[in-house]
């Protein structure tokens, strides 16, 4: 039994390390962007906003500051039943932007409010290219132009980088780590031709890809997944997915305000993750599974091995985490995030257990915004 456990332990650790090599090489592949000039096309940025009066001014200011022809950049804010004066705040920004406001007063029963708002906004957009972001975000100055360049490289969908700004609090540091780790994995998978997700804070597409997959209406019953599940449907219909990885094109937002808020967010994400489809989703599941298996078999070995041999599994686990997280340093540095190896090892170890607990809870507790 001990021999079998040790074999599984070693094999899963090796596969975990290879998974991080796969991420790193994919990240480097995503960085190889060919030189290209932008052929300007009209763009509509669609933003769903629910009680965002305090946060949306920062987004609108960043859109007004885009290094992109103002006459070609349209912004459509969908005011989703806001009660805090969001509409008035948005209307005050009309002088700096080509901006339209669409009001939603009610949402049909059993329909995700955000998906309904986004679908209405996308349907109202008058341009071939639609970019999506969230009301609490701040876009880099090259965001619109870089996303357009990504689409003009023969892609139907552009997925962008959207890191979270960390504060000194532990929940914020972990949330920022988790976001950057996810973005690195997302970028690598897309670069290898097995995309499985985008982040709603920064992505866009050509209208044909949206309409060809049936749009958001088939997903109305899912609370989350307005980005990931829609991208997977597009990919299944033959859409080509490209990564927008330029530094001046990143979209920033804040981390959740507390551990409770983070848990609520992750419950929603993990519930959606259970509906993932495609080869990218399978690779993600295998990667997460072997990483967890490394730790679980290591803990069992600590319990059953005699004497000083108990020290072997923890030493090997720490070495595996140290080796594996070294491949995260480059993408984390690119996204101006945590790059201390000690901190990366700490958060990676925490992430393994936290993700398992949240994943299990996501099937027990109901998801909500």
Summarize the structure.
The chain has 369 residues and is an alpha/beta fold. The chain has helices at 2-31, 56-64, 86-91, 113-124, 143-151, 170-191, 207-212, 228-236, 259-273, 279-304, 312-325, 329-334, 341-362; strands spanning 43-49, 73-80, 98-104, 129-134, 138-139, 157-160, 164-165, 203-206, 241-244, 251-254. Helices cover 50% and strands 13% of the residues.
Number of beta strands = 10
Low-confidence stretches: none
Sequence of strands across the biggest β-sheet: 3-2-1-4-8-6-9
Mean pLDDT: 91
The arrangement of helices and strands along the chain is HEHEHEHEEHEEHEHHEEHHHHH
Residues in helices, as a percent range: 40-55%
**Largest pleated sheet:** 7 strands, mixed
Describe the global form.
elongated
Structural class: alpha/beta
End-to-end distance, in Å?
46 Å
Task: Give the DSSP E fraction (strand runs of 2 or more residues).
Answer: 5-15%
Please tally the helical runs, counting DSSP H or I stretches of 4 or more residues.
13
Radius of gyration over alpha carbons?
21 Å
If you had to describe this structure to a student in words, what would you say it looks like?
With 369 residues, the protein is an alpha/beta fold. The chain has helices at 2-31, 56-64, 86-91, 113-124, 143-151, 170-191, 207-212, 228-236, 259-273, 279-304, 312-325, 329-334, 341-362, and strands at residues 43-49, 73-80, 98-104, 129-134, 138-139, 157-160, 164-165, 203-206, 241-244, 251-254. The strands form two sheets. A seven-stranded mixed β-sheet has the order 3-2-1-4-8-6-9, with helices on both faces. Strands 5-10-7 form a three-stranded mixed β-sheet. β1 (43-49), α2 and β2 form a beta-alpha-beta unit. α9 (259-273) packs across α13 and α11 (312-325) crosses α13. The relative contact order is 0.15. The mean pLDDT is 91.
């Amino acid at each position: 039994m001990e021999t079998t456990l040790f074999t599984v332990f070693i094999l899963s650790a090796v596969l975990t390390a290879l998974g991080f090599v796969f991420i790193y090489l994919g990240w480097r592949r995503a960085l190889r962007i060919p030189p290209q000039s932008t052929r300007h096309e009209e763009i509509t940025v669609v933003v769903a906003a629910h009680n965002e009066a305090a946060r949306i001014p920062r987004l609108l200011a960043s859109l007004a500051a885009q290094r992109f022809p103002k006459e070609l950049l349209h912004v459509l804010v969908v005011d989703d039943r806001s009660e805090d004066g969001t509409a008035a705040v948005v209307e005050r920004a009309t002088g700096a932007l080509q901006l339209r406001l669409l009001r939603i007063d009610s949402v049909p029963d059993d329909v995700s409010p955000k998906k309904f708002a986004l679908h209405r906004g996308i349907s109202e957009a008058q341009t071939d290219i639609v970019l999506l972001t969230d009301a609490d975000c701040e876009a880099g100055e090259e965001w619109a132009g870089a996303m357009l360049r990504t689409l003009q490289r023969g892609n139907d969908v552009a997925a962008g980088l959207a890191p979270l700004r960390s504060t000194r609090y532990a929940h914020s540091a972990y949330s920022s780590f988790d976001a950057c780790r996810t973005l690195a994995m997302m970028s690598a998978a897309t670069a290898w031709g097995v995309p499985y997700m985008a982040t709603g804070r920064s992505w866009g597409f050509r209208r044909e890809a949206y309409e060809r997959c049936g749009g958001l209406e088939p997903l109305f019953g899912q609370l989350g997944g307005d980005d990931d599940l829609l991208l997977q449907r597009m990919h299944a219909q033959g859409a080509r997915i490209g990564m927008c990885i330029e530094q001046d094109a990143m979209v920033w937002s804040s981390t959740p305000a507390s551990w409770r808020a983070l848990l609520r967010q992750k419950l929603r994400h993990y519930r959606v993750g259970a509906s993932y489809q495609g080869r990218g989703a399978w690779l993600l599941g295998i990667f997460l599974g072997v990483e967890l298996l490394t730790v679980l078999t290591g803990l069992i070995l600590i319990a059953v091995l005699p004497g000083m041999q108990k020290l072997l599994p923890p030493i090997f686990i720490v070495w595996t985490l140290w080796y594996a997280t070294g491949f995260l340093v480059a993408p984390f540095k690119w996204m101006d995030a945590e790059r201390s190896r000690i901190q990366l090892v700490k958060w990676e170890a925490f992430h393994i257990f936290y993700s398992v607990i949240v994943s299990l809870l996501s099937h027990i507790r109901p998801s909500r915004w």
